[in-house]
Amino acid sequence: MNLNHPRDINQARLLANIASRAFSLFQDGYRCCPFETCPYLFVVLPPAPDTVGYVVDIHPDHPYCSCPCFARHQVCKHYLAVVEEAALLARVAEREREQEYADHPVFGCEPDGGEW
Ligand SMILES: [Zn+2]
What we know:
By secondary structure, the chain is of the alpha+beta class. The chain has one domain. Helix content is 41%, strand content 13%. The chain is built from 3 helices and 4 strands. A 4-stranded antiparallel β-sheet has the order 1-2-3-4. The longest helix has 27 residues. The structure holds zinc ion. Zinc ion binds next to helix 2 and helix 3.
């Protein structure tokens, strides 16, 4: 399904439904754990114990979630929530880098060959 161009009212309704559940996913107790080895891969763990988590791949070329909803509709609340979360984490990391630079500006090479 094309997320930006739902084919009919049912698809639009389904998308709105999924998006609103994605919006509150982490408030509902779901957790999102990134894979250390790949920046696009995450595991989404439901709040209930003894339930299986879902593997989510947010790579733009091959989006994926291992849940049944994604298998049927090529979109799901886990995928949308992780995309949002990853964008947020990227913005935070970017801000931290900017802050780091503001705290320790680098004016060319350090003559004593210090940290930089
Ligand atoms: Zn899913």
